[in-house]
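FIELD: query
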Amino acid sequence: MKNLKIASFYTMLSVMPTLLYAQEKVTGQVFNKANEPIVGASVLLLEGGKGTSTDKSGKFELNANKGTLVVSFVGYKTRRVPLDGTTNLKIQLEADENVLEDVVVVGYGKQSKRNITGAVSNIKSEDIVRSSSTTTAGALAGKVQGISVRAKDARPGRGAAIEIRNMGSPLYVIDGVAYGGQEGTDWVGTQNGSGADIFNSLNLEDIESISILKDAAAAVYGFRASRGVVLITTKKGAKGESAKININGYQGWQNLTRFPTMANAKQYTRGLVEAAQNENRDPKTVYTPEELAKWQAGTEPGYQGYDYYDMVIRKNIPQRYINANVTGGSEKSNYFLSLGHLNQDAMIKDFNYKRTNFQANMEAEVLKGLTVGTQISGRHEGTQDVGLPGGDGYFSSILAIMKNRPTVGPYANDNPEYINHTNDFPYNPALFSRDIAGYKDNKYLAGNVNLFAAYKTKFGLSAKGTVSYNYTNNKFEGFQYTYDVYRYENNAYKRTGGSDAGWRYDTTREIVSRFAQFQIDYNKQIGDHTFAGMLGYERSDWDRTYKALGANPSNNYIPLLRLSELNSLADEWAYEARAGYIGRINYNYKGKYLLEVLGRYDGSFKYYEGKRWGLFTGASVGWRISDEGFLKPLKFVVS
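FIELD: result
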């Protein structure tokens, strides 16, 4: 019986290779014209969707009986290889000169970097994501010539402001859609959903490139471009590319790198005594020698001093970010899906910022030459602040380090149950808590949908139409509590002040942006002459509804607004509308002599009726001297 079992086992082993062999395995290697292996090339079976990618030797293997392999890689032309029974393939990819040549997004189109005559700066995705900034503007700091980035304040998530050549805030164009709106914030730090706000809330991992248009290059966007234009292009997948999943993130810790060193109690008391001596006053009226000696020793209770920097500024505060995206495509379509989450705590207690971004970019060739697509994005964003007096409680917290004396503690008799009546008690760090001072919270929910259709003919003519709808909802809730401060006198705690002016403030904003655009492009090459032209029309509007309720509650415990406690009511509506006709002509001869003429006939709500339209033009010329014959000996150092 034992021998029979062994024989059966050997029989199974001998049959298994035969069964596995029936699943035909195709192997191969992908290389370029120089016979160098291409690492990471996509190999996709057109029928069935199976796919893989090449290893470090350019090799791949795939189970397939028949069909067609689609082989692609960035910078190379996609190649289709029919399976004819050959199981070991050698596939050579041809370089795509149109892809390898650096292409830059400009107003209403793309141009080869070699042929740009206007003032245009460009930054790619790999340079943008190498930043721990929570805002897009912050990620550009120090990376683009002629751009200055200024932080509005130090609170988490607050957007930085971009200025091009220090001329003010530019126009923001995301995936071809221009965003207007009212910039800035109100007294509690609430944004208005402007282009700058949307730009700063983008997920860095979703950005493919950013172009900065300056001077005449920006004229195609009309009078709004007088301070420059920022063009943002989000990522998309590649046709014929198998699905790729990318997950990345980081965990960081924040600390202040620089801050003035404040005088401690020992230095402070000695300085007061020396100042009195220098002014010919009796130093004993400030501190007696016995008191001064106790402060200098710093060992007795009541004479040990207080470090307000350590009370206000926390160390090693976390900042976390994670992003996951999926990209890929088939023969006639591509997609990019992304989800990211950011969480930043502040170095000051109870200040926080959170943001979640979603991006979905898809396009497909539904008919020969006709491509349709969409870009859908959404975000949920929230800030939490402490309800300190004034609009910027974060700055008040920083200011407290300078305003408080190192000889006076935050609590009366060092008892945490009683907040001390310091010389400027609204800046006492003992108040810097949501449980004591209250809260100021902002929440944003935003969504954007772009739809486009593009048709390209064989003779150089193409047309594209785009519509966009953007919606932002903002809710602010603020509640500033009343509180008491005390002094410890005669072995008793005595209320000597505080805040009796508590308030409750609620606002709601709904912001809608609509955009529509149609443009026609034509490109033609006749011998050594290359012509390109563009005509377009676009219109957009922006409206905001705003409602606000303010009250003085009778206590700190019930956040509900009551009619009897209301002291303010606001109901506002704002509207903006614009339209424009756009044109551009490009010409080059032998790629050496370049000319660009562009213009826009622009209309805006900002001007009174009958005077709402204006013509904005620009022109630039270029000479690629490096292509001249007399510079050929220097072609290795001049380009």
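FIELD: remark
Residues 2-21 form the longest helix (20 residues).
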